[in-house]
C-alpha cells in the first residue's frame, strides 16, 4: 500500500509547505501550519456544467454568443437590493462577512422570509445553531413562512442531496467555516475544507441556477477568515460593518460581478430585527452641536447615494515628544498629509499638537472629497473657531495647497439643499459650465487658505490671521 502523502498548509493565507515551520513565509504568522493529506490526483472529479446545459467543449466567437439580461429576484429590502445591484441573480454565489453579533444571520433570515412570502422555497442551513435556536430568532423577528425550510447540517454531501430533493430558489449556508467534506481529512474551518466547500456550492449554484449565500467568519484584522482565494471564487463579497454596541449597521460591497462596488446599505438594529435607514444624513447629523469648534459637514458620495456626515477634530498640545495622530472613520495617513499642508501652506504650527479626527456615526469614508472638510475641522479646533452651522464643505486638497475638483458636484449640492443647509463650499473648477441652484449659496475656492477664510473668516479667538 502506497504511503499517504501529506503537506502543511497555513490556516491564515493558504501557504503550502512540504515540512512544518514555526513561521509562515507567506503571511509571517506563527504556528499556523497544519498537516493535511494530499488529495489523490487520480481521483475522479465531477465535471463543471452550467444552468444553460453541459459545458461547451468547442470555443465559439464572442460575437455569436447571445446576451441575456439576468433576471433578478427582489429581496423586498431596498438597501440590500441597492448593494447587490438591483436584486439577487439566479446562480450567483454571495459571501457575507462581518464581526460576531453584527447581524449577519438576522439579515439573511429576514431576506429568506421576504422571498418566501412570494411563494418561493428557501433553504436555510445552519451549521452553528440547532433548528430550535433558529426558530427562536424567527419568533423574535416575527417570521412565520411555510416556504422557509430550516436544516441543521454540516456535511456537504447531505446538503447537496437535500438541495436536489426540494429544489429551492435560494440557499443560505451559515456558516462556511462549519461545513466539511468526508474526503478532506482536515478539520472544519481549515483552508482545505473552506476551499473545497465553497467549490462544491459554486458548482451547485452554477449547475442548478440557485442563488447561494455563504456566511463567513472574520479574523481579528477584520478580513474574512480562510484563504484569499475564497473571495476570488464567489461572485459577490459583502461586508457587514458597524459597532456592536451601536444600532447602525452598514452593508458594503467590496466585490460584485453583477453591479457596482461603491454602493452601501444602512440599517438600524432594533428588537424586531434590522430596519432600513432611508435618509441616513438626518440620522448622522441629528446630534450635531451647533457652534462647536472642530466640526465640519461634508457631502460624501457612496455609489449613487449622497450622505452628509459630520467630521470632528480635536487639536490639543502634546504632552510627549512625539505628537499623536489618531483617526476613526478616515485613513490616519491622510490626516498626517493634511496637517503637513496646513503647516507648510497656511502657517499653522501643528508639530507640537496632538490630533484626533473622527467621522461621527461610525461611517468609514475614503473618497478624496472629504479632504477639505477634514482640513477645516482641524483648523477650526486649532484656532478654537466654529464653522457656520449651515455650511457644507466639499473638495480634495493637494500637497501644494490647491483645492481640486470632485465628481458629481450637482448631486452633492442638491442633497445639502434638501436637508436645509444654506451654503456649500466647493472647488472653483466645479463651477465651470454649471449653474448652481437658486435655493442654496455655492462658493468656489481655489486654495486651502481661501477656503479657511470663507469658512472661519476672522473668528480666531484673538489668534493671528491665516497666512498664505
Description:
With 468 residues, this protein is of the alpha/beta class. It has three domains: 6-37; 73-278, Rossmann fold (3-Layer(aba) Sandwich), CATH 3.40.50.300; 283-455, Ribosomal Protein S5, domain 2. It has helices at residues 78-84, 104-116, 131-141, 156-166, 191-208, 229-233, 280-285, 332-346, 371-383, 409-418, 448-455; strands spanning 6-10, 16-17, 33-37, 93-98, 122-126, 148-152, 170-174, 211-216, 236-241, 248-256, 264-270, 273-276, 295-302, 305-317, 325-328, 353-359, 391-393, 396-397, 403-404, 423-427, 441-445. The protein has a nine-stranded mixed beta sheet with strand order 6-5-7-8-4-9-10-11-12. It has a four-stranded mixed beta sheet with strand order 13-14-16-15. α8 (332-346) crosses α9 (371-383) and α9 crosses α11 (448-455). The N and C termini lie far apart (82 Å).
Beta-strand level of the residues, as a percent range? 15-25%
The CATH architecture assignment of the largest domain turns out to be 3-Layer(aba) Sandwich
Write down the Rg: 26 Å
Determine the CATH superfamily of the largest domain: P-loop containing nucleotide triphosphate hydrolases
How many domains in all? 3
Q: Quick one: how many beta strands? A: 21
Which residue ranges are poorly predicted, with pLDDT under 50 across at least 5 consecutive positions? 460-468
The biggest beta sheet reads:
9 strands, mixed
Shape: globular
**CATH classification, class level of the largest domain:** Alpha Beta
Q: Within the CATH hierarchy, at the fold level, what is the topology of the largest domain?
A: Rossmann fold
Mean pLDDT: 86
Q: Count of helices?
A: 11
Ends apart, CA distance between termini: 82 Å
Amino acid at each position: 500500500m502506497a504511503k499517504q502523502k501529506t503537506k502543511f498548509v497555513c490556516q491564515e493565507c493558504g501557504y503550502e509547505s512540504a515540512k512544518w515551520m514555526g513561521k509562515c513565509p507567506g503571511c509571517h504568522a506563527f504556528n499556523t501550519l497544519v498537516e493535511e493529506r494530499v488529495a489523490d490526483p487520480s481521483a475522479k472529479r465531477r465535471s463543471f456544467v452550467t444552468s444553460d446545459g453541459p459545458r461547451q467543449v468547442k470555443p465559439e466567437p464572442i460575437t455569436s454568443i447571445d446576451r441575456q439580461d439576468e433576471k433578478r429576484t427582489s429581496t423586498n429590502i431596498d438597501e440590500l437590493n441597492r448593494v447587490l445591484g438591483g436584486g439577487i441573480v439566479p446562480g450567483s454565489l454571495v459571501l457575507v462577512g462581518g464581526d460576531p453579533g453584527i447581524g449577519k444571520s438576522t439579515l439573511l433570515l429576514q431576506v429568506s422570509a421576504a422571498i418566501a412570502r412570494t411563494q418561493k422555497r428557501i433553504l436555510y442551513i445552519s451549521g452553528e445553531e440547532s433548528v430550535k435556536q433558529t426558530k427562536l430568532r424567527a419568533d423574535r423577528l416575527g417570521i412565520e413562512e411555510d416556504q422557509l425550510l430550516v436544516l441543521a447540517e454540516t456535511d456537504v454531501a447531505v446538503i447537496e442531496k437535500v438541495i436536489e430533493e426540494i429544489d429551492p430558489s435560494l440557499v443560505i449556508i451559515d456558516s462556511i467555516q462549519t461545513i466539511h467534506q468526508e474526503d478532506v481529512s482536515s478539520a472544519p474551518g481549515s483552508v482545505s475544507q473552506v476551499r473545497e466547500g465553497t467549490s462544491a456550492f459554486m458548482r451547485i449554484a452554477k449547475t442548478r441556477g440557485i442563488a447561494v449565500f455563504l456566511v463567513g467568519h472574520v479574523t481579528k484584522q477584520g478580513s474574512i477568515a480562510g484563504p484569499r482565494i475564497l473571495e476570488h471564487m464567489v461572485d459577490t463579497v459583502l461586508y457587514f460593518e458597524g459597532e456592536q454596541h451601536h444600532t447602525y449597521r452598514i452593508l458594503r460591497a467590496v466585490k460584485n460581478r453583477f453591479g457596482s462596488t461603491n454602493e452601501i446599505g444602512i440599517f438600524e438594529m432594533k428588537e424586531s430585527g434590522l430596519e432600513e435607514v432611508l435618509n441616513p444624513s438626518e440620522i448622522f447629523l441629528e446630534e450635531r452641536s451647533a457652534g462647536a469648534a472642530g466640526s465640519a459637514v461634508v457631502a460624501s458620495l457612496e455609489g449613487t447615494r449622497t450622505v452628509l456626515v459630520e467630521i470632528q477634530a480635536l487639536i490639543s498640545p502634546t504632552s510627549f515628544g512625539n505628537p499623536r495622530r489618531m483617526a476613526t472613520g478616515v485613513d490616519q495617513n491622510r490626516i498626517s498629509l493634511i496637517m503637513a499642508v496646513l503647516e507648510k501652506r497656511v502657517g499653522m504650527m501643528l508639530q507640537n499638537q496632538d490630533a484626533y479626527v473622527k467621522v461621527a456615526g461610525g461611517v468609514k469614508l475614503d473618497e478624496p472629497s472629504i479632504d477639505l472638510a477634514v482640513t477645516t475641522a482641524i483648523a477650526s479646533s486649532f484656532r478654537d473657531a466654529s464653522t457656520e452651522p449651515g455650511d457644507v464643505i466639499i473638495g480634495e486638497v493637494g500637497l501644494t495647497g490647491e483645492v481640486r475638483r470632485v465628481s458629481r458636484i450637482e448631486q452633492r449640492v442638491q442633497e445639502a439643499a434638501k436637508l436645509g443647509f444654506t451654503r456649500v463650499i466647493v472647488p472653483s473648477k466645479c463651477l465651470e459650465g454649471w449653474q448652481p441652484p437658486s435655493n442654496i449659496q455655492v462658493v468656489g475656492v481655489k486654495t486651502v487658505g481661501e477656503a479657511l477664510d470663507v469658512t472661519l473668516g476672522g473668528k480666531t479667538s484673538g489668534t493671528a490671521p491665516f497666512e498664505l
